[in-house]
UniProtKB/TrEMBL annotation:
Cofactors: [3Fe-4S] cluster; [4Fe-4S] cluster; [2Fe-2S] cluster
Annotated protein name in UniProt: Fumarate reductase iron-sulfur subunit
Pathway: Carbohydrate metabolism; tricarboxylic acid cycle
Residues annotated as domain 4Fe-4S ferredoxin-type: 155-184
Organism of origin: Candidatus Glassbacteria bacterium RIFCSPLOWO2_12_FULL_58_11
Annotated signal sequence range: none
Record InterPro entries: 2Fe-2S_ferredoxin-like_sf, 2Fe-2S_ferredoxin-type, 2Fe2S_fd_BS, 4Fe4S_Fe-S-bd, 4Fe4S_Fe_S_CS, Beta-grasp_dom_sf, Helical_ferredxn, SDH/FRD_Iron-Sulfur
Length: 285
């Protein structure tokens, strides 16, 4: 393995590579255009590193988003050679360096400037599905008497969907989003399933209002491109299909989500004075 990496470095370090970057300054350009830059590759260089090098050494006006540089924040997602990718996780040596490497802002989003997409509608869609646990027992929320129990099996039902970093790559890959900009999109729909599948949640009815409209969940044709594009291993198309099932179950009246029980007080547990103990019996039994 170490030998392979050494071979790659020998082949690529110092090689001059062309990057074709989409440029667009709405205050002065009538339309987006491509501009080419040539840089020498250095060891372990990612596409984001290349953009940073270009900005530092050739054009300080180049605009793009980045933050963590370790695949966690999701802000550096862009189209690299036509595919949505986290640029901080894409090694230049993974690409064909004999041809120009093309970098554009994420597809299916308006462009704010150069490589920066406008994510406002995307974030609004996420907000619209109420991305938080909804409970009916307001009294318990205001004056908690214990924790809500969740078994490892219950956690498994939604865990992979909780790994979403809201990078937008799935929307850039989605053919429905490409033709219907009002479509809620795979991220918001998978996030809705993440909460519906959470045993502590009681917000199914409220979320249905958000996801089951004319531009909602049933516009998804199950192309599966979102799941291929996701850099975090989330499978939004699976979440969407499972959410469709929950909706159909709800419509035929077969689903009756029970509230998650409060954790049973372990025998002999004593709390600090003034804080009431949770009941010995689980609520909802
Ligand atoms: S589901 Fe995956 S691709 Fe879509 S926003 Fe979340 S992390 Fe990004």
């Amino acid at each position: 393995m170490a030998a392979d990496i050494k071979q790659l470095e020998k082949k690529y370090v110092g090689k001059e590579v062309e990057f074709r970057l989409l440029r667009f300054a709405p205050d002065k350009d009538r339309a987006p255009y491509f501009q080419s830059f040539r840089i020498k590759l250095s060891q372990g260089m990612t596409v984001l590193d290349a953009l940073m090098r270009i900005k530092e050494t050739q054009d300080p006006t180049l605009s793009y988003r980045k933050s963590c540089r370790m695949g966690i924040c999701g802000s550096c997602a862009m189209q690299v050679n036509g595919f949505p990718k986290l640029t901080c996780q894409t090694q230049v040596t993974e690409l064909n360096t004999d041809k120009p490497i093309e970098v554009r802002p994420l597809a299916n989003f308006p462009i704010l400037r150069d490589l920066v997409p406008d994510l406002r509608n995307f974030l609004k869609a996420h907000e619209s599905i109420k991305p938080y646990v909804i409970r009916e027992d307001a009294e318990e929320l205001d004056h908690p008497t214990g924790e809500f129990y969740q078994s490892p099996k219950e956690l498994e039902k939604y865990l992979q969907f909780a790994y979403c970093i809201k990078c937008g790559a799935c929307l850039a890959a989605c053919p429905t989003n490409a033709t219907d900009h009002e479509f809620l999109g795979p991220q918001a729909l998978a996030a809705a399933y993440r909460y519906v599948a959470d045993s502590r949640d009681q917000g199914l009815e409220q979320r249905l209002e958000a996801v089951d409209g004319p531009n909602g969940i049933f516009r998804c044709h199950y192309a599966g491109a979102c799941s291929e594009a996701c850099p975090k291993g989330v499978d939004p198309s699976l979440g969407i299909q499972l959410l469709k099932r929950e909706i159909l179950k709800y419509r035929v009246g077969a689903a009756h989500k029970k509230p998650a029980p409060l954790a049973v007080t372990p025998k002999g547990l004593k709390r600090r004075e003034g804080i009431p103990l949770p009941p010995e019996k689980t609520v909802g039994q």
